[in-house]
Amino acid sequence: MATRATSAIITCAPTGAIHTPTMSPALPVTPEQIAQAALGAAAAGAAIVHLHVRDPQDGHPVQDPALFKDVLAIVQDGSDVVINLTTGGSPHMSVDERIAPAVALAPELASLNMGSMNFGLFPMLDRYPSFQHEWERERLADKDVVFKNTYADIERILKLCGDQGTRFEFECYDTSHLYNLANMLDRGLVRPPLFVQTVFGLLGGTGADFEDLAHMRRTAQRLFGDDFEWSVLGAGSSQMRLGVIALSLGGNARVGLEDSLWDGPGRLAESNAAQVERITALARLLHRDVATPEEARRRLDLRD
Ligand SMILES: C[C@H](N)CC(=O)CC(=O)O
Ligand SMILES: [Zn+2]
User: Fold this and answer.
1) Ligand 1 neighbour 283 (Cβ under 6 A)
2) How far apart are CA 152 and CA 189, in angstroms?
3) What is the pLDDT of residues 62-96, one digit of tens each?
4) Of 6, 76, 8, which is closest to residue 46 (Cα–Cα)?
5) How far is the CA of 239 from the centre of ligand 1 (A)?
6) Between the N and C ends of the chain, which has fewer C-beta atoms within 10 Å?
7) Cβ(202) to ligand 1 under 6 A?
8) Domains of the chain: residue spans and CATH
9) Looking at ligand 1, which residue's alpha carbon is closest to its atom 4?
10) What is the pTM of this model?
C-alpha cells in the first residue's frame, strides 16, 4: 500500500454521466472536448484519466464505442496517460451497454463497481431552477433507479475484460463493496495489487465525513493488508477535503468534473485541469511527489 513516501497517483475523471450540461459550462460534451480535457488533466499531473462519453448534440450520457475510439485517438496521440474506461456508464444503461466499450477497446484499466445500490441524484435538483434539456431533470429526479452490479455482472466483466489483459479500478461505495472484493480475491477472480477507489458522498453509498473515510481505509487494510493502492473519490464539495486527507495518509486521489463541478465553495471549476492543479499542489505541500503514468503502470501492474 502507498505510504507517505510513495508518490501520489492522481486520477482525473473529466465528464462522467452524473452531471449535466446545464450545471456547468466547463463540462466536456463532445469527443474533442473530452479528449482535450483529458490532455489538460494529464499535463497538470494526472497519471490516469477515467473516461465516459456523451451524445455530442445534447450531452446525455451514451456508451458508444465509436465515440470512445475518437476520444482515445486524440488522447493517445498527445499523451502516455493511463486510460481507464468506464464500465459503469450510467445507472440508466443495461450492463451489456455499459461494458461494450471496454470489451471492444480492451483498455489497460477499466472501472468496476463492486455492488448494486440506490443512486440518489435528486438532491441536486433544488439547485437548478431550469434545464436546457428535459432529460436532465428526468434523470436527476428518478428515485427508482438501481445501479445494478450483481455478483454475476461483476464476474462477467472480470472475465470478459480480464481475459483481454484489462485491470480494474474497483469502485467501492461502502464497506460491503470491500467485502465483495475480498470475496473475489479469496476466490482468485482478482489479483493484487488491487486498485481500490473508495467513493464518498454519493447518496445510496457511504457519507463523506472523516469517520467514513477512516472506516473504509481501516476495513480495506484489514481485508487486503498491504497489497492494494488506496484512492479516494469525494463527490461534490467533499472532493478536495477528502482528497487532501487521503494524500496526508499516503493514499491516492481522484478529481474531475465527473465527481465534482466545484473548485471552492460555490465556485464552478473552470476546467478539469484546475482541479488537478489544486490536488497536485496540495500533494507537493505535503511533500508527496506526483506519480507519472509510468509509475502508476508499475504500481498497478498494468500490462505493458
Ligand atoms: C462516482 C463515480 N461516478 C463512479 C464511477 O466512475 C463509476 C464508473 O464509471 O464505473
Ligand atoms: Zn465513471
Assistant:
1) no
2) 12
3) 999 999 999 999 999 999 999 999 999 999 999 99
4) 8
5) 14
6) C
7) yes
8) 10-300 (3.20.20.70)
9) 171
10) 0.98
